């Protein structure tokens, strides 16, 4: 679904660019090449048709962008951590018993000089 909307987004972007460039402006743009089409669209020329077509394609472009953002966020908002398997042990592991360390040897007794 996302790939279809993504391809449609690219097509809409190209179509919208062409429609904007075909409109007459102070620098005329590509509108100079649409002079032969004026009789097809009526006495005013393609101005009214191109404005309506640009608005319609722009509106579809915006809806497609919102739909793409929603679906992309919904599908790719998962993490690897969410799918990781977690094991909860029933009992905590018991550490192995360490051998008892022998007590330190006692210091030798100091000879009492009074007793001989």
Can you give me a brief rundown of this structure?
By secondary structure, this protein is mainly α.
Can you give keywords for this protein?
single chain; mainly alpha; 4 helices; 116 residues
Question: Could you explain how this protein is built, in words?
Answer:
This protein is mainly alpha-helical and 116 residues long. The chain has a domain at 2-78. It contains four helices and no strands. It starts with a helix and ends in a 33-residue tail after the last helix. The model has no long low-confidence stretch (mean pLDDT 77).
Task: Produce the secondary structure layout.
Elements: H1 2-22, H2 38-41, H3 47-75, H4 80-83
Helix pairs in contact: 1-3
The shape, in one word, is rod-shaped
Which strand-content bin applies to the residues? under 5%
Rounded to the nearest angstrom, the radius of gyration is 41 Å
Total number of beta strands? 0
Query: Spans with pLDDT under 50 lasting ≥5 residues?
Result: none
Distance between the termini: 105 Å
How many alpha or pi helices?
Answer: 4
Overall mean pLDDT: 77
Report the order of strands and helices.
HHHH
What characterizes the major β-sheet? Answer: none
Q: Look at the helices and sheets and give the structural class.
A: mainly alpha
- The residue fraction in helices comes out at 40-55%
């Amino acid at each position: 679904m996302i790939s279809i909307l993504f391809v449609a987004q690219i097509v809409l972007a190209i179509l919208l660019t062409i429609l904007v460039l075909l409109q007459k402006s102070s620098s005329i743009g590509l509108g100079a090449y649409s002079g032969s089409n004026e009789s097809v669209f009526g006495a005013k020329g393609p101005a009214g048709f191109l404005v309506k077509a640009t608005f319609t394609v722009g509106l579809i472009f915006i809806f497609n962008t919102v739909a793409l953002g929603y679906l992309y966020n919904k599908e790719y908002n998962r993490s690897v951590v969410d799918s990781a398997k977690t094991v909860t042990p029933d009992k905590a592991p018991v550490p192995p018993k360490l051998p008892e360390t022998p007590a330190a040897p006692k210091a030798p007794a100091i000879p009492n000089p009074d007793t001989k």
